[in-house]
From TrEMBL:
A GO cellular component entry from the record: mitochondrial inner membrane
Known cofactor(s): Zn(2+)
Keyword Protease on entry: yes
Cofactor note: Binds 1 zinc ion per subunit.
Domain of life: Eukaryota
InterPro entries: Mito/Outer_Membr_Metalloprot, Peptidase_M48
Keyword Chloroplast attached: no
Molecular-function GO term, any one: metal ion binding
Species for this entry: Didymodactylos carnosus
Peptidase M48 domain: residues covered: 85-265
TM ranges: 12-30
Swiss-Prot/TrEMBL keywords: Hydrolase, Membrane, Metal-binding, Metalloprotease, Protease, Transmembrane, Transmembrane helix, Zinc
GO biological process, one term: protein quality control for misfolded or incompletely synthesized proteins
UniProt protein name: Metalloendopeptidase OMA1, mitochondrial
Length: 282
């Protein structure tokens, strides 16, 4: 009977796209590992192991330094301040979980109001953000938040949500430098290398919230008054209201809930501030 024959052939053919999609999802799930954040307890999947992620972060960092070579600030008070705050926050981050990063920071002379931290702990600060951070505690707010994106492996989480991971894991592409510019740009954007490389994959609300939370704990633990985080975000918001949205906000959208959430975490941060900085001598 012809009808039977038709059914016999039509059935599997119609299923092919679905099978491919299921296969792709299963491949992603089996090649991904689950990580639990030591600070917040949130569990998420990532598509890269720490070595792959750090290699990629290091390559992206080299690319940024290459692209901005003429604007790199080598020494001076700005570099000293940025390095000091980074070192204190790095120590604070290592207090919980298994965070052994080779932290490094570059300062770029630019009016851009921006800063970011790549996977593996490579940080870039644009001098344009310093008038907004105003002081060490303001800078600790930004760097704590950025370092939390890295320690929480948000870049790898974002990459996992794209098909780029498969290309990377397939070993087809060697390094970032050898990739075609479009792909390189997409990966740089996913890793969070600033608006210069595109903003096609902004951090999710959940990741932003987690970075705010952990960043607040890092700064408090490092000895900076966590209340300064509220003041910093208010200054940032004031810039936006004046009509000039800072690059930092276009990459990290400002939510009306942000300050409210920070206030909610404030008692926890204050506790850490006292525990790590004013504990009575044993
Ligand atoms: Zn962020």
């Amino acid at each position: 009977m012809p009808i039977k024959l038709e059914r016999k052939h039509a059935f599997p053919i119609a299923l092919v796209p679905l099978m491919l999609a299921v296969g792709f999802i299963l491949f992603k799930l089996f090649t991904a590992s689950k990580v639990t954040n030591p600070e917040t307890g949130r569990t998420h999947r990532i598509g890269l192991n720490p070595e792959q992620e750090q290699k990629l972060g290091l390559e992206a960092y080299a690319q940024v330094r290459h692209d901005e070579a003429s604007k790199l600030v080598q020494s001076g008070s700005e570099v000293e301040l940025v390095k000091l705050v980074t070192a204190k926050l790095a120590k604070a981050a290592a207090r919980k979980g298994d965070i052994h990063y080779d932290w490094e920071v570059s300062v770029i002379r630019s009016a851009e109001v921006n800063a970011f931290c790549l996977p593996g702990g490579k940080i870039v600060v644009y001098t344009g953000i310093l008038p907004v951070t105003q002081h060490a505690a303001g800078l600790a707010t930004v760097l704590g938040h950025e370092m939390a994106h890295a320690t929480s492996r948000h870049g790898a989480e974002r990459l996992f949500r794209t098909e780029i991971t498969q290309t990377l894991l397939g070993g087809v592409q060697g390094s970032l430098a050898q990739m075609d510019p479009v792909k390189r740009q997409a990966i740089m954007a996913a890793l969070g290398a600033g608006t210069k490389y595109g903003n096609t994959l902004p951090f999710s609300r959940e990741q932003e919230s987690e970075a705010d939370h952990i960043g607040l704990l890092y700064m408090a633990r490092a000895g900076y008054d966590p209340q300064e985080a509220v003041a910093f975000w208010q200054r940032m918001d004031a810039q936006r209201r004046k009509g000039s949205t800072p690059e930092y906000l276009s990459d990290h959208p400002s939510h009306s809930t942000r300050i409210g959430q920070i206030e909610k975490w404030m008692p926890e941060a204050q506790k850490e501030f006292v525990q790590y900085n004013h504990a009575p001598a044993a």
